[in-house]
Design goal:
3 helices, 39 residues, 62% helix, 0% strand
Length: 39
Amino acid sequence: MKYLQKNGRRPHAQQPLHLKAKHLLDNGRVMDACKVLLM
């Protein structure tokens, strides 16, 4: 995930996938989290 920041992208512009998946899991959306990680 750190390589995005090295390329000059703002870290807050896009959430890292593992954080997005964790957020989905916290909301009980296991299938959505799996899709996010597999993309």
